[in-house]
Records
---
Amino acid sequence: MIEIDYIIHGDYLVTMSEDSPPIIDGAVGVLAGKIIDIGKHCDLINKYVPLETIKGGVIMPGLINTHCHAAMVYFRGYADDLHLMDWLEKYIWPAESKWLSSEFVSDAVELAAFEMLSAGITTYSDMYFYQSSAAKSVKKLGIRAVLASGVIDFPTKTTRGAADCIDNAIRFMQDFKGDPMITPSIALHSPYTCCPDTYIKSKEAAIHHNALLQTHLSETQWEVDEVLKKYSRRPVQLLDYYNILDNNALASHCVWLDDMELDIIAKTGTGVSHCLNSNLKLASGIARVPEMLDKGIKVSLGTDGAASNNNLDILNEMSTAARLHKAMVNDSAALKAKDAMAMATINGAKVLGLSDKIGSIEKGKAADIIIASLSKPHLAPIYDIYSHIVYSMNSQDIKTVMVDGKVLIREGRLASGAGGEIIDKANYWGKRIMSEK
């Protein structure tokens, strides 16, 4: 018998590995942060002696949020029911100019990480500023993160323009290269706030540091019209012309793509982060996800920031996407439950370039695992576990969350016991912001 750290035992084990069906009465063996075995519980207990056994209803890979502005959680509810450009120009950008600081970002990312872990998100990809401060909170809470230092052409609170932004991103990528939990990245705001030269220089930096390049892309009809007017090319066509799009690029939103642009995204291997609830709330439109999937495009799920969603809940994104896209194309089979779940797990890992480490429960991968209860009334009876997860489950059903072999959420609570302190800090910042709004 081999001593290991954990045996995680569930009524169902959903691995999300290719062509692997759910395992009834399944189990996962974990040692030193890695998955060392999967199979029937009865088989694993005859091979291993665990230091701890964790039991639950359904075991599945940690969820992956591929587009977020985590620190904006402190602007949740600050400005709602507005179109994107009004929301940005009249409220969000002025608020960021006033409030962003190292302390603000560090404290806000703690709240965002706490919220995401509680909802079963074990990895998130972020586009923002002060990412070194964000990294401290990421490490403190234990979540896995792809942190992208933001690039924009006009001056910000900490930069004079794109050159400063790119320099910051290069330093950040250098500082965190090889970090086991933080993957450094570079993020351009959009083709309407970053000129082609900024994209070219950022892409050169991304290639040099073997880093993912992220950008908002074709989020609104206004953006498409603005880029067309300025460059005589649609946004996707423009970035393709300058060789920005490839397998190591992630485009968020991608709402207003025409047929040619869908083909470009597919041809270049560019990943897509579908941020449905944010797009709905800002009335930006609805991406052509079923067509993307039919073309073999890697589509994942993102929440966007909590200022425009207003939560960080991938289960909610997954459920809404699976329902809405059926109605959009008048086909109830347009986005099946298992495909929606793949968008929240293994597809997310693929678009982030991390599918060798996370996204599915397989031997040798990191032990990023969540366990949900199946004991609530809305989860009985069970006929198809994928259907249950996508159409019936909610984030309150997540009971245990493990990242890199460490249990961070137990019985729905932060294992460190710091949850109350994090919420108190959020309320303190909220009162400060409201008093000077």
---
Amino acid sequence: MPSTRYRIVIKGRLSERFGSSLEDVTMELLPGQTALVAEFVDETALYGLLDHLSTFNIELVSVNAVN
């Protein structure tokens, strides 16, 4: 099954330490936001990361599949 690349934009900035704890996730700092880009093998893996972010009360701006 092919994986899908997603770009998840959150409000605010994540620390480098927090970002490095997210396995296989690339972090891009934006003005007042942080973009996280990663490949997910299925929706369960995607929702796992989204749930992890929710645990820390991190506000989502957008979640989009990208090529």
---
Amino acid sequence: MARALVIGLAETGIAVTRVLRAEGWSVVVVEDAPAASPVYAARAEAARAVGADVVESPDASRSAELAAGADVVVPSPLVRATHPAVAAARAERVPVRSEIDLAAERARVPIVGVTGTNGKTTVTSLTAAMLIASGVRAETAGNIGRPLIDAVADATDVLVAEVSSFQLAFSTTLRPQVAVVLAITPDHLDWHDSFEQYAAAKARIFAQQSGEDLVVFDADDPTARRVCAAAPARRIGVSLRADARDCYRVVDDALVYPDGRVLAPLSSMRRSLLHDRTNALAAAAAAFEVGATSEGARAALATYATMPHRVALVGEASGVRWYDDSKATNPDATLRAAMSFDSVVLLAGGRNKGLDLAVLRTAAPRLRGVVAFGESQREVVAAFDGTSIPVVEVEDMHGAVRAADTIARAGDVVLLSPACASFDAYPGYGARGDDFAAEVRTLTEERRR
């Protein structure tokens, strides 16, 4: 009987365990940090119920021993290459496989894989929406929520998968029919050893493609453009420049095909900020390759709703609009959001992921002021040293919203776009955004009294 060692008992780990046990594998799951929670207890019980062994809190020698005795080791996302089980597997020449590789090998329909630093979830969901509006059965999976290996047996025509650098770091066989590579900018450098390694992980999404396949890439981003130049598949770019060649692009307030035909006027989109345009072009280029129609793409663009915590309007009072962009956990995402507006009061801070926050000063011409909070607030303050931008330090979200209110003027946008992770004060970016929205609601209700 083939033996698998699965590292981690979160959603991906339990999904891999279920599939391999159903195929007759002997499975051991190691969990380094078992949580005292009902969710973890249920996952552990589910793994045992299908016949897997669960080993909790193993020391390094035990993890290495289990890996050496396996036929394959499957690390969950965020498991590092230095993990004792991964290191032992490689020393013993035991294959280390990413869940997305196992999933793709079992897939019966085309896969569209979407990666990049920002916009992955939007492009994944919008691509699926365009396909569905075109009468094509499509499902989303991967880093967007449901593990890809859970979705491959579904009755569908296309799988659209959001794929992270953590998943791609161990990928060796993934071959999506369409690979979408959005802008690649510094992120997760606390996990990857360098930006080059991070970019190299992203490039794995097309490494196994051939000339029959397609890479859609952000032609306005130098790193995406550089890494995709080595892709073995056909390539098509997306660009906001009207003069970009061989690209889906924006011309005269319209999204256009590479040949210049109009796909959709910007006015027909539910929202058309700069990053919305790039995301729309990338989704369309990918969706057309696997069966979407122009009519379906236009219908999706007209009705697609902004996902929560991604430059989502959460309040308006006294001529000031308040936007929740809590999903912006790196500086590039924050810059893209801030540069979409003319006058911004920016709320930034949290737990830095080893990134250079000084690049935020690029947005200075658009900023009326900055409110800094969280572990990295001193780094946020330092980012604007030498500028005329006023920066206020606060203790919490209540203070941040109140400080922003004193700075903002009619016509301004107050933008929570932290450029940092939320884990210094919240369980996730969603909770941070919800806290912001609640504080904005309280403030706007006070304004109406």
---
Amino acid sequence: MQNFEFLLRAAVFKSTSALVAFLLQQAADQIDASYQPKPREQFKARVPVKVDCIFGSFQLSRAYYYHPGKKEGHYPADSALGLENGNTPALARLVCLEGADENSYEKAELHLRETGGIAFSARQIQRLVQHIGPDAQNWQQREALQPLPEAKPAPAFYIEADASGVPMRAEELEGRPGKQPDGSAKTRMAYLGCVFTQQKTNEDGSPLRDHDSTTYVSSFESIDEFGPMLRQEAIRRGLPLAMAAILLIDGAAGLANMGRICFPTAIQIVDFYHALEHAGKVLLVLLGSKEHPEYKKRLGRWARLLLRDGVENLIGQARRECKDQPRKREAMEKELHYFVENVPRMQYGTFRSKGYFIGSGVVEAGCKTVIGARCKQSGMFWGEKGAENILAFRCINASRNLDVFWKERLNAHAAENDPLPLAA
């Protein structure tokens, strides 16, 4: 029975491939017949090409033009049909999705073969992803002139950002400082940002994230480049329409500065989990060990204190306890610096009373699922561009924007056939 199913599928694919080949050849002939060459473009010949589609392969004949001034050629049918290195748009989309979604190119190859009977090697998948990937990254960074038509006013509009280290090949890390004992680096930081909205709270007053409202952007550029990119995404999603904008970060100085520059009107909130984590570090200075019988009790009390807008009381308590212990005082001030710098961002009681989130769990989860699940598997070492291209596709997919990206890409290809405007 299994062999019969494979034979039946092969027969269906073969007949479908023949039909697709016939229809695309007819379309290519019509495109070539109606094409208006650009100034100085010269028709050279009709050139055959092997085209791969979901149902198999076939040969397509199409016209070739050459521009001697620009020293570049052009195939009008390829642009109009949206061919990607000899692959149909549907196949290119599927291959890029599998290459980015599976945890390795080899797994993507297996999945394509077993579920669709598509023979596309891991190396071919990688090449296609790297061919289209830079355009996917540029698409993430496109300028936003105004909110998208589907953007709606939201009582609370959230922006979150974080960074995650991606293991890199040695040549990508030359001369870069890091946290290794010898001062070298093993990873490059990939920034991930997300935007989502909140319309209401539940019966307990806890905030509820709007279903399917989260979109992501990623970049290996510096925070100075990433901040404006995240702002563009926020504008597209409706930042100008929001009643309140909230920037949730981990308290790092770079992200806080990004907030001041790119989101000057946003309410900045330091993630409560990170605040509690730093409170634990302060207690370690005071008590000496997490095994101290008072450690958990005091950490719980400080958690409740922070939730009552008591960050300044926490600072005061810690300083009073070590005022007569000079050796501890310096270490204490070093740990308290995190709280001193973030007092306005740690008014958790006030934030909760307004129904806002105080945790950056959305972007933290994104770092694990969008970045970690694909780029931080055992034995992986990336080139920067290779990882950046993969993450661009993963962000577009996680943001439910695949249809929009591929539609705009097809339109951009088709626009290559538009004749240049003639000078008056």
